[in-house]
Specification:
The chain has helices spanning 4-23, 40-55, 67-76, 92-115, 155-162, 185-195, 226-234, 242-254, 270-276, 294-297, and strands at 27-32, 59-64, 83-84, 87-88, 120-124, 131-138, 141-152, 166-170, 172-174, 180-183, 200-205, 223-225, 259-264, 283-286. By secondary structure, it is α/β, with parallel strands linked by helices. 42% of the residues are buried.
Length: 298
């Protein structure tokens, strides 16, 4: 008698097959941040997921932040992290630290991917003129070297993908005077996903997804069309940090990304569970004419 455990494993692989076929050779942008960057085990899971996507024929691009690590280093050198409206105030010294820390995090991720047998290249938004930006104001206030993306030149990403590398991007860009700016990683991931016409954009952070009622975990919404997402914002169902995230998702879809996923990076292998299973695990936001996958099999 064949062990039931092996049959279940085979079923999981078969369930993944239509998704592998559907997204073969398609670009998937993964925005990686939050606690999953600080916990070594979670970090290993995220990187393994990205490597697996690459090896089954997807074209992943990782865009990562490093806010908590930047704050740690700012404290280490005896400076104090300042925030205005939730955004880090970035003077010249802080910008210098941010770029160094992000570059360090970037090369650690590159190393990790390569230890799993896939070739990776780490770049910033300055490389190849990838991310051009202008100063971003926060409620009219100047918060220093914080950038808003104005232009993306994706040529370097296409070149790397074509040569079979996995690109890993950290969100530092430059303005018309070639000054360096720190860019919010969510914003950078969105801009990149739009520019490369990604099939999917996945946000890995510290939230499970979008809830109809924030206080009731059973109201997690598996799939939302863009207009439904806009209604949730207008009707006040979502608040706080979720509003800019949802607006980013809506904007990305309006600019041609097919599906955007909001996932909890604290759940091991949430990326694989969302992309390769019928039920999904976070919230997927789709175009008006986007086909809902999950409810057919739920």
């Amino acid at each position: 008698m064949i062990n039931q455990k092996y049959l279940e494993k085979a079923e999981v692989l078969i369930e993944a097959l239509p998704y592998i076929q559907r997204f073969n050779r398609k670009i998937v942008v993964i925005k990686y941040g939050g606690s999953a960057m600080l916990d070594e085990e979670l970090k290993a899971n995220v990187i393994k997921d990205a490597v697996l996507l690459k090896l089954v024929g997807f074209k992943p691009i990782i865009v990562h932040g490093g806010g908590k690590e930047i704050s740690r280093w700012v404290g280490k050198v005896g400076m104090e992290a300042k925030f205005v409206n939730g955004l880090r105030v970035t003077d010249k010294d802080t910008m210098e630290i941010a770029e160094m820390v992000l570059a360090k995090v970037n090369k650690e991720l590159v190393n990790y991917v390569q230890s799993l047998g896939v070739r990776a290249v780490g770049i910033s938004g300055k490389d190849g003129g990838l991310l051009k930006c202008k100063k971003k104001l926060s409620g009219g206030e100047d918060i220093g070297y914080v950038g808003e993306v104005t232009e993306v030149d994706p040529k370097i990403l296409h070149d790397l993908l074509e040569k079979d590398f996995l690109p890993i991007v950290f969100p530092v860009g430059y303005d018309e005077n070639y000054d360096t700016y720190n860019i919010n990683a969510d914003d950078a991931a969105c801009a990149i996903a739009e520019a490369v016409h990604a099939e999917k954009l996945a946000f890995l952070s510290d939230i499970e997804g979008v809830y109809k009622d924030q206080n009731d975990p059973s109201t997690l919404i598996s799939e939302l069309h863009v207009n439904e997402a806009q209604e949730l914002i207008q009707q006040g169902y979502v608040g706080g940090g979720m509003i800019p995230k949802l607006n980013n998702c809506i904007h990305a879809i309006e600019k041609g990304v097919n599906r955007v996923h909001i996932l909890d990076g604290r759940i091991p292998h949430s990326l694989l569970l969302e992309i390769f299973t019928n039920k999904g695990i976070g919230t997927a936001i789709l175009r008006e004419d986007g086909e809902k996958f999950y409810h057919e099999h739920a």
